[in-house]
Design a protein that fits this description.
mainly alpha
Length: 125
């Protein structure tokens, strides 16, 4: 358990660096690998049932994102979560509240089609 905690804390501290080198990115990846290798102990001790957590999955993309976009000091999940909430609420309000799941999907497809059409028309100009 200490190895898991130590590795995730190491990952967090390395991720917070404002300037990264090849060595710091390797250390970041190593910390994540150690966490991934040893996290099963948390299941065995009934500390956590599963690790199907979007924020935890996002960690696997940090090294690539830092390599492409520099330091991770602006990374967070607030925007996707906010958009998800807004779109879900707007779609639900547009439904008739019965069998709303299918209506939510159709509403989102229509919104996406309108957005793509607008983008295409902007591109034509």
């Amino acid at each position: 358990v200490l190895v898991v905690a130590h590795s995730i804390l190491d990952f967090a501290y390395y991720a917070q660096l404002q300037i990264h080198t090849v060595d710091s990115l390797e250390a970041l990846q190593t910390a994540l690998s150690v966490f991934d290798t040893n996290k099963e102990v948390l299941k065995e001790l009934s500390i956590h049932e599963h690790f199907n957590i979007p924020k935890l999955h996002q960690l696997s993309h940090y090294v690539q994102s830092i390599t492409l976009f520099d330091a991770a000091d602006g990374f967070n999940t607030e925007l996707p979560e906010c958009l998800h909430i807004d779109f879900a609420k707007d779609a639900y309000c547009a439904s008739n509240k019965h069998d709303y799941e299918e209506q939510l999907v159709l509403w989102l497809q229509c919104q996406e089609a309108v957005f793509l059409q607008g983008t295409y028309l902007d591109w034509l100009e």
